[in-house]
Amino acid sequence: VCSSDLATACPHCGEPVLKPVAALGEFTNSLGIRMKRLPGGEFLMGSPDSEVGRFPEEGPRHRVHITYPFAISAFEITGEQYAAVMGDERAGAQGAKQPATSVSWDDAREFCERLSQRPEERDQGRLYRLPTEAEWEFACRGGTTTAYSFGDAFKTEQRSEEHTSELQSHSFIS
Fold it and tell me: How confident is the model at residue 14 (pLDDT cuts 50, 70, 90)?
């Protein structure tokens, strides 16, 4: 295990040493969506060829630089939050406080546009959009180089919510 925060590679094993993603703060918007501000930074995107269960589209592993700080929702958008913006209850079929489901990419984009147009958000100068694939992986990895944010192995007997990164979400603001 490498602990140096100055090296770019472990002198013992050669594995990349990346600084953890440190949150720059957080805020809660007018709908109660908790947003985390993240700095830009570098990380290795994709998975190594040797990773168990790896899909071909997860490679090749490559270094990516996120140029600007950004903010991302700490949690999934709930059916209640989605309905408040879109006026559509279908996404909350699993329950108002549960993550919105059956939302297409176009619908998610429209959600961001409409959320940005709400007077409370406009007054704060907040423009919402979906994260890029690189921003999403950067946030989910949280500075790790393992298969999951919590390590390389997932034990099926463990409850998945114990390992859900606080940064996994579907809303994004820049």
Answer: low
